[in-house]
């Protein structure tokens, strides 16, 4: 071992001995000394062949005892030293071949104080900026392309890192920060990370190029950049530029912010001002610094609107959503082909903020937004409907569109009603004010699936949960005063075909009873309760609906009707007949004359009654109900004979419901002769048993003898000019009775009474002239028959007999 003093360590021995007594190979040297330093940063640089170790104040700062060929023996360290003396110790070893040992230091700008207006750079010979920097310098910008070289004279080309820091003055506004690094870089502004590719590899597809948009206030802002190189070529570039127009939300234009992800998170990668959103990027990138897939955009702008309704139309491939004044009106945030969405919104006059967000996943990319003035349904129109369309089945949320229509008459089938609304699961609201003359109106609705209607705020049709019996049809009658009335209609479509229609027309008002015809009101129940659903003017009640109903407004079962009308009658008897299935009742001038409200045996809806009316106007009221099955309602009347006026040459007959001419006069009838054999009831509404009837008529006779014959089942009585000539008033089988009377020429009144008890019923009365026994016949007998055993009393019959040979 040998010692000597040297003012500096700057030896290049080549292959020579360092001094006598020391071998040219496999030797080592230690240098120690104390040196005075001004306070500050110093760069210690060594150049050795082979190994080296360096201590400053007993702190080892370089340890290259085994030579790292990537450095070629060149090592640097950047140290901050306090003012005063510092101990420096260097150890060196030579293995073989050339020998070299050099150490120097120099004061450099230190990064302990961040400079203003430029960067202070620190270089580390590792990838994670660990330990002390090996070098440092100042530079105005970061613009390096080292290729496969080294950033310093150490010849270390891989596995190093750098840190730049600087304070810079910015005007207020938006700035585009652009990095281009190989391998990794991260950037902070005022401690906030805005660029980060510190994952050890340059990410596809941008390969180290990153754009970030950041808004800054006026003044000084600290910019910190960190970079690392792993292997291969090395590059570190970073700069910024002002983006005009996006300092704040612009007026009349959009500020667009582009993000390198689908979630609009982190700092935007890029920004610009767009006069409109109308982009079809197809498979290309939307802007430099953003890849063609997996990106997102946010547009914001303030725009002037006049007071009106507006239709917003947005198209997205993929996700899209739109806000107006912070209110979400379109939400299509999903993967999709180019899809159009619509929303309707009334806006006040003034400035409104429009914001649209968009993301692109892969494939084609489309982002479009426009708006147009349309119907404002917050103001109900006059004489038209304002329609609002909703993409929901409960009219919730904002409408996607609004339009004006003259009427509601739509059959969309299986298609969509408008763009922006699907063919299924949508709803519509129509509102309008319409002028009406005073009167009754028929409102008819047709729909598939559900509908409800309000008139002046009153719900008049509620088919929101339609029943099977109606199949999309509803009808009501509504009395309206003269003037404007508000009509509101709501409609819902679930699935399948879609249809919506509402019409109205004048309908008869039964408040005033018509003359010469019936005003009919129809009810959707069996007890004529509530409001009628239909009204009609009918010249007669003559309906046989079979299995149907009287109107589309009513089911074919469980309905009722009321008819009223004033009719002119001559004085006299009138026969009223009804035929109904099911219940039926009739009033004349308020008196109930037919009550068949319950169909019962034996008539089953067929009723007949006789009513005597004075000459003049009489009010007829009819009520009817249908339970189930077939439906029928008929009423007719015809003038009936008045037997108080005895006819000539004919009989006028009166039928009674009981055997003793009680129970009410059921009917009258005029006939030429009495020749009846009634196997069933003699007339409608008279049972075939236990009835009675009276007959009277004036007949012309020639002078002579007449035989009167009466065949009856059961009792019979016959009067001739008020003389009772036949009287058998008891129940019996069909039995014939006779009486003989001498009549003078002229008119004679014949009166007959008859009753039927049970079984068959018959009445036959006739007369014929006969010869008397003066003079006596020649060659024959003249027989006189009496109804008494003493040949007294009225003569029952006279006839000529050829012989007397009877066995009765």
From TrEMBL:
Signal peptide: none annotated. Residues 1-122, 114-254, 249-389, 380-522, 513-651, 646-781 form the PA14 domain. Pfam families: PA14. SMART domains: PA14. PROSITE patterns: PA14. Gene3D superfamilies: 2.60.120.380, Galactose-binding domain-like, Toxin - Anthrax Protective Antigen,domain 1. This is PA14 domain-containing protein. It comes from endosymbiont of Ridgeia piscesae.
């Amino acid at each position: 071992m040998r010692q000597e003093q040297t003012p500096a360590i700057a030896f290049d021995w080549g292959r020579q001995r360092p001094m006598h007594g020391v071998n040219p190979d496999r030797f080592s040297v230690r240098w120690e000394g104390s040196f005075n330093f001004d306070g500050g940063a110093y760069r210690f640089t060594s150049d050795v062949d082979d190994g080296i170790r360096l201590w400053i104040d007993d702190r080892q700062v370089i340890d290259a005892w085994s030579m790292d060929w990537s450095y070629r023996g060149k090592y640097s360290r950047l140290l901050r030293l306090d003012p005063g003396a510092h101990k420096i110790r260097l150890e060196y070893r030579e293995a073989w071949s050339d020998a070299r040992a050099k150490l120097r230091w120099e004061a450099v700008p230190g990064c302990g104080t961040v400079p203003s207006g430029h960067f202070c750079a620190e270089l580390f010979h590792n990838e994670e900026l660990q330990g002390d920097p090996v070098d440092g310098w100042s530079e105005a910008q970061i613009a390096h392309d080292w290729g496969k070289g080294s950033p310093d004279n150490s010849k270390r080309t891989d596995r190093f890192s750098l840190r730049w820091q600087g304070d810079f003055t910015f005007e207020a506004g938006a700035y585009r920060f652009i990095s281009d690094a190989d391998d990794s870089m991260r950037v902070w502004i005022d401690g906030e990370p805005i660029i980060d590719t510190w994952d050890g590899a340059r990410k596809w597809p941008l390969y180290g190029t990153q754009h970030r948009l950041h808004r800054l206030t006026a003044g000084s802002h600290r910019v910190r950049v960190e970079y690392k190189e792993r292997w291969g070529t090395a590059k570190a570039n970073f700069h910024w530029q002002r983006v005009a127009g996006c300092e704040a939300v612009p007026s009349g234009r959009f500020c667009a912010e582009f993000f390198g992800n689908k979630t609009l998170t982190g700092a935007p990668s890029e920004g610009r001002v767009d006069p409109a959103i109308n982009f079809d990027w197809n498979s290309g990138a939307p802007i430099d610094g953003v890849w063609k897939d997996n990106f997102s955009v946010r547009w914001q702008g303030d725009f002037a609107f006049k007071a009106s309704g507006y239709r917003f139309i947005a198209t997205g491939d993929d996700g899209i959503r739109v806000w107006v004044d912070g209110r979400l009106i379109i939400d299509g945030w999903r993967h999709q082909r180019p899809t159009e969405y619509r929303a309707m919104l009334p806006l006040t006059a003034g400035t409104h903020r429009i914001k649209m967000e968009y993301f692109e996943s892969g494939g084609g990319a489309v982002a479009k937004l426009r708006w147009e003035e349309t119907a404002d349904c917050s103001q109900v129109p006059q004489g038209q409907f304002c329609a609002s369309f909703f993409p929901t089945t409960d009219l919730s949320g904002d409408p996607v569109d609004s339009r004006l229509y003259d009427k509601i008459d739509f059959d969309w089938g299986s298609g969509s009603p408008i763009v922006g609304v699907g063919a299924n699961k949508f709803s519509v609201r129509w509102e309008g004010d319409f002028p009406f003359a005073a009167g009754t109106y028929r409102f008819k609705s047709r729909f598939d699936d559900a509908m409800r209607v309000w008139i002046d705020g009153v719900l008049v049709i509620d088919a929101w949960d339609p029943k099977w019996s109606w199949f999309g049809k509803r009808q009501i009658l509504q009395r309206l005063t003269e003037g404007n009335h508000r009509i509101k209609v709501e409609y819902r479509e679930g699935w399948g075909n879609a249809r919506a229609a509402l019409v109205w027309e004048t309908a008869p008002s039964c408040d005033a009873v018509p003359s010469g015809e019936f005003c009919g009101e129809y009810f959707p129940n069996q007890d004529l309760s509530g409001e009628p659903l239909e009204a009609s003017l009918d010249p007669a009640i003559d309906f046989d609906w079979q299995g149907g109903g009287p109107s589309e407004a009513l089911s074919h079962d469980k309905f009722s009707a009321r008819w009223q009308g004033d009719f002119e009658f001559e004085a006299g008897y009138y026969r009223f007949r009804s035929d109904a299935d099911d219940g039926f009742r009739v009033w004349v001038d308020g008196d109930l004359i037919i009550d068949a409200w319950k169909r019962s045996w034996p008539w089953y809806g067929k009723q007949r009654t006789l009513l005597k009316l004075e000459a003049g106007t009489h009010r007829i009221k009819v009520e009817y109900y249908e339970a189930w099955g077939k439906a029928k309602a008929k009423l007719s009347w015809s003038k009936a004979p008045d037997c108080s006026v005895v006819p000539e040459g004919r009989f006028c007959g009166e039928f009674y419901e009981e055997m003793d001419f009680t129970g009410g006069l059921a009917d009258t009838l005029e006939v030429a002769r009495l020749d009846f054999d009634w196997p069933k009831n003699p007339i409608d509404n008279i049972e075939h048993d236990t009835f009675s009837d009276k007959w009277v008529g004036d007949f012309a006779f020639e002078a002579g003898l007449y035989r009167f014959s009466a065949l009856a089942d059961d009792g019979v009585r016959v009067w001739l000019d008020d003389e009772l000539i036949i009287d058998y008033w008891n129940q019996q089988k069909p039995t014939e009775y006779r009486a003989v009377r001498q009549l003078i020429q002229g008119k004679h009144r014949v009166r007959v009474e008859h009753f039927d008890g049970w079984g068959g019923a018959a009445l036959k009365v006739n007369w014929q002239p006969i010869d008397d026994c003066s003079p006596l016949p020649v060659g024959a007998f003249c027989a006189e028959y009496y109804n008494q055993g003493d040949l007294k009393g009225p003569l029952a019959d006279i006839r000529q007999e050829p012989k007397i040979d009877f066995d009765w």
